[in-house]
Design goal:
341 residues; two-stranded antiparallel ribbon; 2 strands; globular
Length: 341
């Protein structure tokens, strides 16, 4: 062989990025439009479905890279995760086209999560039976959290790129070498999409991209809990996702306490409130990506600790920038009122 396996794998990653970019261009020309509504950050119709390019490229090149790097794809966890993600992506694309009820999307998310768990990707904490329920809840929650946060140019794709690159860079340290190339693959596919969405959006990911990527992110976090070699390597997944988790949980709790329907579309997420207050959207996106990087650094720091100590140290460290983000939203909305949020 003239080229070493890593070089071939990197070449495939570049091909995946360019292939994703080509499909995104096709989806722009297809012009399935996202018309602005009361909760939209855009003012004119913008094509959606950029996630078709991301997901299609990932599924096409992932098996090839796995084979080149000596990782089998003929394993129950890999096969069922791929089937689950493909199922959810297809249903989500149909929803992008036809705007199905939320109940149908929830059923699809639950079915996809169940398939992932059936493949063996689930936590066993605090006990195997409870772990299955916790894993199902986690996967559905993270899938929706990524979807909810996909409302500003480059925010979700940028955060996922940073998170996946961090996993790839620290995979050996955490004893997770099997995640290095999949993480690089997803990051590469998202890099093919990002120039069409940030800083100015020519196309959006759509549910097909945000929900598909959300399920993969949640699945990777569960995989870490079972396979990390570090005493508290399980912190990595939640830490990288902590900016999204905090924003979604805070928004849900606040809306519940205010008596608002949790099923009703709104513009009350912190990133939306900051944008409505006049904060530069590019700056918001870059800050959110920075929070992801901070979460990864906290995970590296606490990984050698015993689990209880790691949780006690990591939680305040992860909460600190998010509380500052919340304080900024409160200060800005007092100076620049945005109405109810």
């Amino acid at each position: 062989m003239l080229l070493s396996d890593p070089i071939l794998a990197v070449f495939c990653l570049l091909c995946a990025a360019f292939f994703a970019a080509g499909l995104v261009r096709v989806m722009i020309n297809l012009a399935v439009l996202d018309h602005p509504g009361h909760r939209s950050a855009h003012e004119t119709p913008v094509p959606k479905g950029g996630g078709v390019g991301v997901m299609a490229s990932f599924f096409l090149f992932f098996p090839l890279v796995q084979d080149i790097t000596g990782h089998s794809v003929l394993q129950a966890d890999v096969i069922l995760t791929a089937v689950a993600t493909a199922l959810l992506a297809c249903v989500s694309w149909a929803d992008d086209l036809y705007q199905w009820p939320a109940s149908i999307k929830l059923v699809a998310q639950t079915a996809a999560a169940a398939l992932v768990i059936a493949g063996g990707t689930a936590t066993s904490w605090p006990a195997p039976s409870y772990g299955l329920v916790l894993s199902l809840f986690w996967l559905v929650f993270i899938t929706n959290a990524v979807n909810f946060m996909d409302g500003l140019n480059g925010l979700i794709s940028g955060c996922l790129i940073v998170g996946n690159l961090f996993v790839a860079a620290t995979g050996t340290y955490f004893g997770l070498p099997d995640l290095v190339w999949p993480a690089l693959m997803l990051a590469g596919c998202l890099c093919g999409f990002l120039p069409f969405n940030f800083p100015k959006a020519r196309i959006f990911l759509g549910d097909v991209g945000s929900q598909g990527c959300g399920l993969l992110a949640g699945t990777a976090a569960l995989y870490m809990t079972r396979h990390t070699s570090q005493p508290s390597g399980w912190v990595l997944g939640p830490a990288l996702l902590s900016p999204l988790i905090f924003d979604v949980l805070f928004t849900l709790v606040r809306r519940k306490l205010a008596g608002h329907s949790l099923m009703q579309a709104h513009r009350g997420h912190l990133y939306q409130v900051l944008h409505r207050s006049g904060m530069n959207p590019v700056l918001i996106t870059l800050c959110e990506c920075g929070f992801v990087l901070w979460g990864g650094m906290v995970a590296v720091y606490t990984a050698p600790f015993l689990p209880l100590k790691a949780a006690c140290v990591a939680m305040p460290l992860l909460a600190l920038p998010q509380l500052g983000w919340l304080a900024l939203a409160i200060i800005r909305t007092r100076r620049h009122p945005v109405g109810p949020w």
